[in-house]
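Model: Ready when you are.
Researcher: Fold this.
Model:
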Amino acid sequence: MVAAQGHLVDEDGAPLVFQRAVETLEAARTRAEVELAQIPAPKRLAPHAYAVEASVVVEGEELADGRLVLLHDPAGQDTWHGTFRVVTLARAELEPEMAADPLLPDVCWSWLTGALAARGAAYSEPSGTVSCSSSHHFGALADRAASTEIEVRASWTPADTSAGFPDMAAHLVAWCELLCTSAGLPPALGEGGGDGVVSLPNRRGPR
């Protein structure tokens, strides 16, 4: 370990607090339907980044997918109001009629905020978008059913613990719960729910 700009760093130059935050993320335990893997992290968003991708797979079928990126800038960034930032994407396919529900964006956002609250993942400065896109098929593809995809893009600043870095396990587990809920899975045994979180009816049929 050597000191650089007041931060303990390893041979790769990553501050110790970032290493510890990544360790808490890697130690997270998610439900069995979630498959996680580390992926290359973006280089331009912050000096240090760590990324994972996730898929919700049930009986061999992928029902939802997404990625979560943990960013760290020792100098902080004005829009973050902190030195860490979580950036996420979650996608799932819905039954087409669900896209017409005017409450769908609010409900999907509540899945995320409710999961964060239920897991005790303290945060600030949340921002995000909820988008729906529909696909209709014609010609040689006319026999395919119409499909609608929901996409939730969100970011927030995770609160530091008394150790000086965020407990990313809670944030990762909450985000995985958003993926599972988007996929239409019921809460796993032992999962808590956040106040104001609304479930949509079973909305997936055979592809």
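Researcher: Now this one.
Model:
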Amino acid sequence: MSYILMLSLVMPAADFPICNAAGDQFYPCAIYENDQYYVFWGDYRYIDIDSSQSVFGARVSTSGTVLDPDGKLLYRHRAGYAPAAAYDGTNFLVVFRDSC
């Protein structure tokens, strides 16, 4: 079982799982906006079904409560990894690498 963990730089000495889904989760990216953390990651939970790599995201409160357990699916296809996120005050932009 793989976990996505909050980085100790974000919440010192408070690593905890954000996703307990089957398959591998990797390349986490966290951003802090609107008094909560937004965490995005690459995910292989569907790899055995249709070879798809996905991008998921979850909100985490400042107290460490995961508001979207196991995340919300943002993208599912044959490629999607190493996400990065930005916020302009209204909208999030999440980008990721394709198979190149």
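Researcher: Key takeaway?
Model: The two ends are 28 Å apart (CA to CA).
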